[in-house]
């Protein structure tokens, strides 16, 4: 799984697919474990992305200069 290739939406989509597959309850133990591990990684990725987005929103709303921010402005704040 390449972190840079998966955005939040794609990660969430894949998580939903994993849950759906695991709910079928006809998986062998090895497949269940592999899906669980992949799901855990995706959850971590989603939480990191949400945290990063929350920080960006906080920066924007506290500054009052919504239209003047560039990506580099966020990097400087972290």
Describe this structure in words.
The protein contains 3 helices and no strands. By secondary structure, it is an all-alpha fold.
SS class: mainly alpha
Q: Would you identify the CATH architecture?
A: Orthogonal Bundle
Number of helical segments with 4 or more residues: 3
Q: Got a strand count?
A: 0
**Average pLDDT for all residues:** 83
CATH topology value: Helix Hairpins
What's the overall geometry?
rod-shaped
How many structural domains in the coordinates?
Answer: 1
Gap between N and C termini, in Å?
A: 25 Å
Would you identify the regions where 5 or more consecutive residues have pLDDT less than 50? none
The arrangement of helices and strands along the chain is: HHH
Biggest sheet statistics: none
Instruction: Give the helix level as a range of percent.
Output: over 70%
Portion in beta strands: under 5%
CATH level 1 name: Mainly Alpha
Rg over CA atoms: 17 Å
